[in-house]
Each structure stands twice: as C-alpha cells, then as structure tokens.
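Hey,
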Amino acid sequence: MRHVDKLNQLLRGYNLALGGLKLVEQKLMQSEIKRLQKHMDKGAKNHNWFSLSIDEYIKECQQAIDTFRETKTAVLQHAQNIEKKVVNIEIAQIIRQIDFTRKTPMDIT
C-alpha cells in the first residue's frame, strides 16, 4: 500500500513537470523529455508489484523528475530573458524622427 501512494505521488510529479510545456518548449527539450521517459519506462517494463526494488525505482525516477524540473526552469528563464530583449529591440528608437515642418532653427546638438 505504501508503494501505491509513492507511485501516485511520482506520477503526479511527472505530470506536473511535463504539464504546461508549449509545443516549442517540448521540441526544444525533446532529449530531456526522452531521458525522463526512459527512467519512467523502466517501471512499466522491469518491475512488478512484488519487486523488491520499487523503492529504488521511485528514488531514481524522482531524481530524474527533479533534474528535468531544474532544466525546465532554466530554459523557461532563458526564454523569458530572450523575449524581453526582443521586445526591447522592437521598441528601440534607432533613428530619431526629425520635424521638417518646424519653423524655428534647431539646436546645434
């Protein structure tokens, strides 16, 4: 029974880690997602309910999920920084507009 609770927690953590990823982010993190999936797949293929290594499997998967979350957080932070820089470039005024209809002389500067 204790294994069932731990496995349910593990699956909730897995779903939260992968949830909310945009399609672009999924493509960008494809290798990390595959690595995480490989850890999770071990439980479906190599374990049964009477296996003595379920605790080890849970611990290994939890570490993989934590590593994925750290990577995901870093990627999302970098994406936000890039987006801010792109917005700053978009709104930057590279060439100052000159008022040619002006009747008074302009300052020398």
